[in-house]
Amino acid sequence: MAPLTRNGKRLTGLNLSFIFCFLFLYSGTLSAQSPLLCSTSATNLDVRAEGLAEPIGSILLNCTGGTAGQTIATNLTVTFPTAVTNRINSAGNPDTVLTVDTGSGPVVTGSPAVLLSSNTLAINGLAGTVPATRALVFRLTNVRLAMATLSPGVPVAVNLSSTGLSLTTATAL
Fold it and tell me: Is the dihedral of CA 77, 78, 82, 88 positive or negative?
């Protein structure tokens, strides 16, 4: 068996040891990070069935897992069974609020919601870091819906999708 060479020079045991040590030390950063799994839920509020701008409860994404220090980058889409009737701010976005709680209290994200259609909100460019507790809670609040177009007594089912989070359930009631 021929000795290992580099540019005609024989690799010594010290060089090989350095290479293996480097690969061992950095293998953790080269491996895939564990997924962040999120379940959806909602806090329910009683709303007037005839209302055209009724505030609904909070929509929650409870996320666990991931790797502490892992950077999250995602887009979130929320589809409602009826029209979103929030006020529109000067930037042309509905006045909904999305917060994230990493264990030290909720903080408003810098990502505004955008109306994709009359009943669909998109929140693009969400970014953050997984805390040491490996638990995050996203909360969407201040959403108003045209409840008069729905049948009275039927729960409002909200569908969520994300480009960077693994959703274990995609519907919140």
Answer: negative
Largest Cα separation within the chain, whole Å, is 85
Q: Answer whether 65's CB lies under 8 Å from 134's CB.
A: yes
d(C-alpha 101, C-alpha 157), whole Å:
24
Residue 4 has, within 13 A of its CA and on its CB side, a CA count of: 6
pLDDT digits (tens, 9 = 90+) for 16-26: 444 444 434 34
What distance in Å separates the CA atoms of residue 144 and residue 81, rounded to the nearest whole number? 12
pTM (2 d.p.): 0.77
Pair type for strands 59-65 and 54-55: unpaired
Torsion region of 163: left, alpha or beta (phi above 0 gives left; psi -120 to 50 gives alpha): alpha
Rounded to whole angstroms, how far apart are CA atoms 140 and 55? 12
Question: Where does residue 27 rank: exposed (0-12), middle (13-18), buried (19+ CB within 10 A)?
Answer: exposed
Residue 36 Cα to chain centre, angstroms: 9
Separation CA 7–CA 138 (nearest Å)? 55
